[in-house]
Queue: 4 jobs
Job 1
Amino acid sequence: MTQVQQIRRGCCTAVHMNALVRPEQLLAGVDLDGYSPIDKPCFGNPTSLIEYMLVCGYDDWLEEEPIEVWVYKHGRLEVHDGNHRITAAYEVGLELIPVNIYYRHGSEKVHALVS
């Protein structure tokens, strides 16, 4: 498993690439307003994302485009990519999903998603 790496890139102070996180930890940052529902065919596939995850889990095809989450200093989560995948993973009961976590303003010291 990868570890949190300290960096200095603008407001980003640390990054944790391919962290394994429980989907329910990320739900507060999910925004599905205006997006297509996760139980309908999507991404050019004849099946829904939920059906796909029930059969394949979180496989290499889904990992091609990483889920990206930002964590701010007061603990607020913001999902920048992966709203559908997080929600579908939660709905089908996946235990852990890979996420790239970007900590901003030193939030990794207080609000680390992965221990």
Job 2
Amino acid sequence: MSKPNNYCFLWHLGHFTLFLLISKLNAQQKQQLRSVPIPLHMDEMLSAGRQVYDRQSTPTQNIGLPTNVKLAIYIEGIGSFRTHTMDFQLDVYLQQFWKDPRLAHNEKSRILIRDRAILNRIWHPDVYFANARIAQFHEVTQPNFLLWIDPDGSILYDTRVSMVVICAMNLKNFPLDSQWCHLRILSYAYDIHHLKIEWVDQEPITKNVNITMSDMDIVKLVPGTCDGNYSTGVWSCVTAEFFVSRELTHHILQTYVPTTLIVVISWFSFWLDVENSLPEVSYMKSLDLFLAVSVLFVFGVLIEFTIVNYTQRNGDFF
């Protein structure tokens, strides 16, 4: 009777050990799933190819309607408006909102995606800045972007971009001028029949309240539209208008005050009697020496400025 009891005990012990092992494996699997940036079923859907998810197609292409993409911009910084190159520097957070029903999920909260490889497998708008000379994404210390997917498929894509924007300034009233500069944003590949770009309804353009510039003051920011008809079709477009006025303190201190003082000093000659003068002598007087040195310094400054200006434009010639 002892052997059957031993076999029964070992049989129950084996089942209990197997149960503990399976429970531990399930717990580890759940823990791993929590660290996955997107649910496993969504990852499988993105990996299944065009039969399930086609990242080349807009979310509403199958129903023949354009996909609505709403934009918002937060201006983190803005650089000097350079008159010699007719441009200015801009650092912004660009937020894009759209809805992709194909990415709807059954999670209770939105999904955060921080992996650019996963982002590249999801359709997202190909907006660009039409009048930017150069533009670049920020990669330090990690790529500066995030993508949120709500359970109903609503998506927020936020990224940081720095750029140099062209601005054709009218300098007729310089330095008492004000300028209108704009940033044009539109899709590169999708016309208005496939993608429509709009500003968000509430505060589409906001800025850092601590922004200061040495040469310009931001008067107001105005959102606008710029839908255009091109040879390839009609393209949806929005604009961010910057109305700036030039800061006068620098020009008052460096230009207006010195020239005004020179003019005022020249008026002192009106109180001098034209017949009052020193007698003409054959030797040099101390006043003549003082005037000669003063004129020499004036011409020396002009020559020095000419040489420095030339070397800066053409390189050192020594």
Job 3
Amino acid sequence: MDRPRHRPSSRRGRHRARWRPCVSLAFAERPMESLTAPPARAPLLIGENLGLRYGLHGSSYGGSHGGSRGGSAAQVIDAVVGVSLTLAEGEILAIVGANGCGKSSLLRVLACLETAPRASGRVEYREIRTSSRSVAHRLAAVRALVPQRPEATAALTARQVVRLGRFSVGPDESAVDRALGDVGLLARAELPVNTLSGGERQRIAIARAFAQLDRGGVGGGVLLLDEPFSGIDPGEVARIVTALRMRARAGAVVLTSHDPGLARAIATHAMVMKEGRAIAFGAAGEVLSAKLLSEAYRSPMREVGDWIVPDLTASQSTERGRMRS
């Protein structure tokens, strides 16, 4: 299970780990009001005016205007700028855009893994009742993150890795079995992770997130997946998509993708990002258009049936024009 960053503090000679959410974090047991058009079902996640800045070349971050402590100017990059979204039960949101547009950074903000003052805005999750008062444990019960490059845990078996997803929410071996079955790796559950292929390790990371949010065979909460299909065979992609759709019935999914055609086939909603900003957000069939994606990727795109692919003919014509000039 992904763990929020924490900073140690000293009190009465003891070192205690105290975690503070990166942004204004709230939990709601009541139905939440949408920031945009009201969805058909109650929202599970609301993000309001989310932002994230990274320092460059080792410079310190010093506030909202990029100044550093000590008076010297800090170099910063705005990875996420003023993004707002609402995600309801049953919805799958695909975030697309060029490399470096802020997709992964936005997921980290939604997961509350970034610390202030770099991150800003408000994140609100609808809470699943839990006996824990720990904010980190309460957060683990409502969201799970699959990073783009899951950490290798060579000493553990596939089953043990997936079991880690239950760390904050309580043991449940049937949930582990269901998760392994959903990604097609139940038969390889006792193998060490370092003997599995890269694609299989990615599927194990997805299974761990499935197990984390499993509630007696019913999904729930919000799955956050960064490039979840990277290195996975097409047949297994179809299996995982089916599992995502099933789990989204009682929860919701946010995923990033470099394949707009696949994103349009999977998602109910889509967000197109460019230079840290959301330039479009709405129904996937409307947002993921060749025209808008051409702007986002700075390269011609065209529609082929239900798919959107690079327009190689237009790209070649543009390149020939540049060579002549």
Job 4
Amino acid sequence: MSKNDCYSCGAANAMQAFRGRSFNVSFKQLNRMVPDLAGRECTECAEIEFDAPSAERYARAGDELIEDAKRVMADEMKRIRRKLHFTQKSAVQLLSGGGHNAFSRYERAEVEPPKPLFVLMRLLDRHPELVRELQAINECADINALLVQKQQQREN
């Protein structure tokens, strides 16, 4: 196998040099462009091999994107919690049922919040009037009524 053969698909002499191209690095649904990269691309399967400096820049951009995303999510969790006038403890009790310091860890970006919790927080940010609905659901009055009904059916 020669230096110009593709390591991915094995195509002979398929690796073509490129310079000055921009590539997208992504994490979940978040994206960031990394400009002015150099390397080689396979003309058969489109496999990309960056040169060493470009590979380092691309990897660093990916790491920075992940760190930035975690920090933004943490800041959003804190902002929304405060907007809704929740303490960290009440937020855990009402929204996640996790450990007593779960929100503290989310807000310091030590732990990524579960996606359903993050989506729920963003929904409550847009529709804070749903907090009352959420509190009612957590009280389980409707479930308790169904349980009483079920018990009455068994007794009859």
